[in-house]
Design brief:
Order of helices and strands: HHHHH
Number of strands: 0
Strand content: under 5%
Radius of gyration: 15 Å
Structural class: mainly alpha
Helix content: over 70%
Distance between the termini: 14 Å
Shape: globular
Number of domains: 1
Largest sheet: none
């Protein structure tokens, strides 16, 4: 189960990073960056964010420092969603309800990294 959830979490980062941002298949992501950080550098910043998110997916799959990785993921998702909730709710797929899905994703990351891994190590 832990392996499946780990790959699922990595897939979320990969899809949002590579497909939505780097390959620009979902222009709404660039619009959000433009709203928050300005139009002038929206594309290069969106590209950089997408590359970092793709790197996050690879890091997750690697399993290197997985608990530190999980903490970083939870912080990034929380901060990103708070900023978007305040500054760009009209551009979010589910509006302000996006924060609900972000909380569920954070709980999934926590459960996978801290609860499932302790169960595995105890057996």
């Amino acid at each position: 189960m832990r392996k499946f959830l780990t790959y699922l979490i990595a897939l979320v980062w990969l899809v949002n990073g590579l497909f939505c941002k780097v390959l620009h298949l979902v222009p709404r992501h660039e619009q959000i960056v433009a709203r928050i950080l300005g139009d002038q550098y929206a594309r290069p910043l969106t590209l950089a964010i997408g590359i970092l998110e793709t790197g996050m997916a690879l890091w997750i799959i690697s399993g290197i420092k997985s608990r530190f990785n999980a903490i970083l993921q939870m912080m990034i998702v929380a901060i990103m969603n708070i900023i978007e909730f305040i500054l760009a709710p009209d551009l979010l797929l589910w509006g302000r309800f996006n924060s609900l899905y972000a909380c569920i994703f954070i709980l999934l990351i926590y459960y996978t990294a801290f609860k499932l891994s302790t169960r595995v190590s105890r057996s």
